[in-house]
Amino acid sequence: NAGVMQNPRHLVRRRGQEARLRCSPMKGHSHVYWYRQLPEEGLKFMVYLQKENIIDESGMPKERFSAEFPKEGPSILRIQQVVRGDSAAYFCASSPLTGRDTEAFFGQGTRLTVV
Amino acid sequence: KQEVTQIPAALSVPEGENLVLNCSFTDSAIYNLQWFRQDPGKGLTSLLLIQSSQREQTSGRLNASLDKSSGRSTLYIAASQPGDSATYLCAVNLMDSSYKLIFGSGTRLLVRP
Lengths: 115, 113
Known about the structure:
Chain A is mainly beta.
């Protein structure tokens, strides 16, 4: 059973371009979470999705950021018109359920650099 | 608002030493607390998960304790090895949003040969 797969591992974008980050959860997991880690900081929650539904997007910036988890295929975190401040590591986690006894498994992350 | 603080921010010890990493949180209404390891440029590896009803968890040379009432957790690493060098993150899982982890900024550990 492969772990949480994120691609690309590294992404370089010029200011103003779009960034698309992909996350394939572990097999059998229907809950996906995105976190962002700015340099020298801890991870910050961005969004929680189930298949075809956004459950909690309270950590997402109001503009330029969107996330989806379609019925088929990976979850996508999309950042439009990137700026230098978007440079960070973006981590995806997945779990089979949610709740107190559920452990989330993290992917290797996508490191976005905006030049 | 829940805040998670880790002290120290960085730690350098000689190989073989026992060490303690500290984590504190401001709101005791948590479901559980997790300790993760993060290697440079890599993802997170879960080390130990302590439920709010538990006092400690052990895995090999690692022992994590939880004192929910005082908002503190410690990660004890016995007989440290250079391979333990990494950043250690603690995270709490809140009762009012059990899927959301609140992370500390981490402790960067260097174990010198």
